[in-house]
Design brief:
509 residues, alpha/beta, TIM Barrel, 2 domains, nine-stranded antiparallel sheet, eight-stranded parallel β-barrel, 25 strands, 26% strand, binds 2-acetamido-2-deoxy-beta-D-glucopyranose, signal
Length: 509
Amino acid sequence: MAWLRFSIILLLNMCVLIAHSSPIEADAPLTMQVARSAADATYAVTVNLTSSQHSCDVRFLSVAIGSRRITLDWNGSEKLLNLASALSPADLRLGGTSANFLHFDPTERPGTRDRFYTSSHKTPFTVTARQWDLFVSFLRKAGLDLLFNVNNLMWTKDGSWDPSNADKLLNYSSAKGVQIPYFQLGNEPSSYQRNFYINRSPQKLVQDYRTLKNLLAKYPLYAGSKLNGPDVANVATSYKARVYLQEFVAAGANDIVDELSIHHYYMDSRKARMEDFISPTWMNYLKHDLAHAQTISRSSPRPKPVTLTETASCSNGGASGLSDRYIAGFLWLDKLGLAAQSGVTRVFRQTFLGGYYALISNRHDPHPDFYLSVLYKQLIEGPVFNLNISPPNPQLRVYAHCARTLLYLPGAIVVYYLNLEKSQTVLSLSQFQANDLHLYQLTPGDTSGLTSKYVKLNGQTLMMSGTKLPTLLPRLQTGDVTLEALSFGFIVVPHANVSLCVEYFQRDP
Ligand SMILES: *[C@@H]1O[C@H](CO)[C@@H](O)[C@H](O)[C@H]1NC(C)=O
Ligand SMILES: *[C@@H]1O[C@H](CO)[C@@H](O)[C@H](O)[C@H]1NC(C)=O
Ligand SMILES: *[C@@H]1O[C@H](CO)[C@@H](O)[C@H](O)[C@H]1NC(C)=O
Ligand SMILES: *[C@@H]1O[C@H](CO)[C@@H](O)[C@H](O)[C@H]1NC(C)=O
């Protein structure tokens, strides 16, 4: 039925004049224009391999969970550990609205309420020593590094931030040798008024950050930890969030934080429609958020990189039947591509666990985005390249990076794509015509199509076998690559021998 919604777009596609197949010289006149269906179109992709403005480290794709999830059982499940390990190396942000309600009490004995999870983000909860121990030990076993979101709503009588509970946590953790490489303070402070009927000015927040930094300096284990803030959401569309970020930077935040952090959601889950998830217009909106944040950062004499510490398709828990289905992969892969191209240092997927936008279900079954994330993690690291698509087509979005050396030799390159056309299209990697290619094509896992709960890799539905993940194997081929209608995937050129990639992996670690 959903296909009916696309019929108008499909009709339009049929009418578009598309140049004849095979690569076209940029300046050559289009002498052979023929009316064709998009199904026959071939697109020549030329990657600019001579320069790269940005580079992603291997932790670029990271994950987030709500602070309250720390009260779940992090010791019980081998399956959960295998799932988390598959995303390593990565950072895990423990944060969000409930961060401002977390109270650490090492003297509290674990009780029956220990593992009680309520859906209300806005009630205080206590974290016991045992819960903390199990959680940090899970992260260590999984190979995830912690970004800890500190409660910003504990204040002294004079209204300054009260660091004593954070001190308790650090004191306890330091004695146990718990690594916490990143901290941040509060969550979406420009919305405190709306959410909690209180106000924290950006100037006050900068003071709070200074207090936190001084606190960390007391502990040799945390003195070198990195800080990021202020975690405001949707700076392109929220004027309040944008002004908050501006004032945070103007108040000297960049002297304290290592990165400026923002959140991004394309839309509210209650308004999300299927067509939004495959819309280039929605995808492009992210560029405005990143550009605003970077412009604001550069307004400081000490510009800092921008990081996306909380981001997903839709706010308010994600859209049921969309954010947890195959179709979510389009917005997710495009976000990773755009963020990498603009030099964002991390993209923390909201969430690893919890909500419809989670990578895995509450029963720890992977959603399609989980497998997409694992592939991205296994394949991509290092310099990002610009590329040219000829003829241009907004329905075809393509990105290029160096390949990670987990599976490939230094010098290998990955081209990844979203085909938003409702028909097959053909990609021609003109520079690598003679090369062997490794294709990882992801398509819906069953007959539900775009809203499938499953995903196929090269035609095989990906399924766990007990607690074990399937191996993600490529299909080998040479020549032009046929992209399925409404699909996405990765094309690796194992022997591309791109010198910028070789050099990246030769550098000192
Ligand atoms: C590749 O990028 C560099 C730097 O932006 C530019 O100078 C050069 O002209 C580009 N090469 C091609 C073939 O577009
Ligand atoms: C964690 O799980 C292991 C294996 O099931 C068990 O031996 C251990 O006692 C548990 N630790 C805690 C603190 O519950
Ligand atoms: C941690 O707490 C203990 C007990 O209160 C105290 O003696 C110690 O100095 C604290 N450590 C640091 C680094 O503040
Ligand atoms: C890769 O390229 C370099 C020059 O950039 C060349 O010296 C080397 O032999 C090439 N390696 C392979 C395996 O083709």
